[in-house]
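During the reporting period the student researcher (J.K.) took over the structure-prediction task from the postdoctoral fellow and processed the backlog of single-chain submissions. One of the processed entries is reproduced below for the supervisory committee.
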Amino acid sequence: RQVSTQSTGLLTPKNRHMVKVYVHFEEKPELTHKLDVEETSSVEEIIKSFVSVYNQKYPENVLEAQKVVLQDSSKKIATPSTQLSKLTSEGHDLYVVKQEKTSKKSCTRSGCNKEYTDETNYDNACQFHSGPPIFHEGLKGWSCCSKRVTGFNEFLNIPGCTYGSHTDEKPEAPIKPVNTAPQPSGDVTLQGVEGGAEVYGKQPVKSKYVSSPLIPAPKPAPKVVEEEQDPADAVIPINSPCLRRGCNSTYQSEASRTEKCVYHPGEPVFHEGSKGWSCCKPKVLEFEHFLKLSGCKNGKHRFVKTEAEKKQETEIVCRYDHYQNASHVIMSVYGKNVSKDETKIEFEADQVKIKIKFNDGKTFTKDIKLSEKIVPGESNYVVLSTKVEFKLKKAEASLWGQLEAV
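J.K. obtained the following structure tokens:
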């Protein structure tokens, strides 16, 4: 066979370990390209080196580096960033193969939903969530990772916590909960026989009262909600996503303002395993199918957040608890990186007004109505590394049944 030898120019320092590999091309089996490369070289560098030599030898049939992949002896496609030392050992064979033109597939893993082909699907190509979504007390997140957010759009943008290969297989249907509630007891009687089986049921109770037909109350007129629109003078960065739910468009030019937007004006509804939107009827079981439900209303795109939305993004929820002694109630609000200068606390006889500002711009705001009276002038607080601690002076030396007033 015909063997060509080449040392890659950017990989030849004498103080580094060089190895020899043999690269074959499926369309020219008579050509074997021997490379002297550094063992930490990447697959991408090896492909570029081979393509350079090939194009010099066959200028009439130019090969493009981005249209070929590299396989090891087991015919497994290597990712562009893989180092040679992890792919093969010295003297082994590698194979350059043209990428086949295959149709794109959509990944069905939660949090990914990207399009891919078999050639671009390698071991860590997919970043996804391995667990189901969790919606609890206004917070949204995934069971497989700890991050929680309040906005639905923020929830959709939580990056995956697991890496693997893409798949287009339909995820398994979640197991429906079994109703284990006790059944009502009562006297039952034999109602009849169906198909050889006895059928039992409760004996109907006759009432001495005659009910009159119910007259349905008139339905209230639906409220007309004015939806937010972008200000005419708004400056919108290129590729800004449309903020309307169910729309995946991005801002490309001034013409994007007048394009038709198909979206959901309502809120997401998750009830007894089904998922949908409050503004339309379609309901599905799978979360991936919910994300693909087509919008039910036409309008214009909206790319700029309102002041209320910006404020909601900065508001966070902090955990707090307390304990007490004979003279004081000690309350702790937990959070790190608190800005001492911007944090504002007001003590009143029956409440504590809290506004804790964090160094990342987030804010925790809460007015705590107290179940008993305190002495504001003798109450204080201190900012610590993991919490803000409040020392509330009791107006009377008695045991509080609870912190907050009912």
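The committee noted the following: The helical segments are 43-57, 84-87, 152-156, 287-291, 307-314.
J.K. will present the remaining backlog at the next meeting.
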